Amino acid sequence: MDYRDLNITPFWPDHHPRPPDLPVADELPSAVDVAIIGGGYTGLSAARTLAKSGASVAVLERESIGWGASSRNGGITGCGLKAGAPTIFKRYGEAMGRTFWQASLDALDLIRELVDEEGVDCDFQQNGDLCVAFKPSHYEGFKERLAWHRKHLGHELRLVPPDALREEIGSPAYFGGIVDPHGAGLHPAKLVFGLARVAARYGAQLYEHTTVRQVRREGGDFEVHTSRGVLRAGEVITATNGYTDALVPGLRSRVIPVGSYSIVTAPLPPELRAEISPRGRVFWDSKWFLNYFRLTPDGRMLWGGRNNLSTSLDLEVSAR
Ligand SMILES: Cc1cc2nc3c(=O)[nH]c(=O)nc-3n(C[C@H](O)[C@H](O)[C@H](O)COP(=O)(O)OP(=O)(O)OC[C@H]3O[C@@H](n4cnc5c(N)ncnc54)[C@H](O)[C@@H]3O)c2cc1C
After folding, report:
1. How many domains does the chain have?
2. Which domain holds residue 242?
3. Is 68 close to ligand 1, i.e. is its CB under 6 Å away?
4. All residues at 6 or more sequence positions from 22 whose CB lies less than 8 Å from its CB, including other chains
């Protein structure tokens, strides 16, 4: 393939564009209970919860709903955080470690709730995830991981010895694996647009092309200055992720954007899909700067990693 044929726009919203009938509002209200800055998973999920409990909520999104990382990620959901649970327990203590772990389980439950109870169709497939050992020593580490999770969290993982790996993945490149049956894959863009609909259904008002420029304390409230006017809010939630700028000075030194890129193939023949992922698992490897990969719901291979931390990589140059 010639790199010039490469489409460098994000795959998921190309595949499932923002629905034209997404219920967005027009005119800013003069006051709300809660103003939420950012219309990705964080902002929309907070909006859903708050609106459901009766609060008046405005979600203020600079671009369009789901424009940020929420429509351009790997769509892999799993238990735990980037740093493994043993590391988190050691670093922050058992109580905090358990809280983090539980939060990751709750996040998975929330997705299931959105799918089963709120009718969000996001191609959620919970067939488990497989972490593959990049080096033989990593497989030894998997044995310790299994024992630790069983003992401290009562969470059951399953080892895949090197000679059984072919039943799990169509690649001879790895040295064994470990399966978490709770892992899942989904369509990120469908999730974010579905979540937006649910939040709106509960009464949250969604505003696109609305940049928040300043947030000022005014008495007991906040004055939120946007590109479309000013609104008062009892509370403000900043859900701007790696796009956080000088808006909230306290966040500037805490949120550090890093680049993360993925590449997606054309749809693969059914036999090849079955060979790559015979059990429909999602995958990642055991490197610190890990690679993650999976089949998309329409049978493409998605491959992602953190090979370059720049947020402004020239994708065409990189493809060459
Ligand atoms: C390539 C890639 C792959 C990933 N893969 C996975 C994965 O497989 N599994 C996983 O769990 N996570 C993955 N992630 C992480 C995941 O996508 C994010 O953690 C998640 O989407 C964050 O959601 P969010 O709502 O916090 O932020 P975002 O979705 O980024 O939303 C923030 C929004 O804030 C808006 N905004 C910023 N400033 C302002 C302002 N001043 N006024 C108004 N709006 C503003 C932005 O326009 C943006 O839309 C991946 C991320 C990337 C980039």
Report:
1. 2
2. 3-72+190-252
3. yes
4. 65, 193, 196, 197, 200, 206
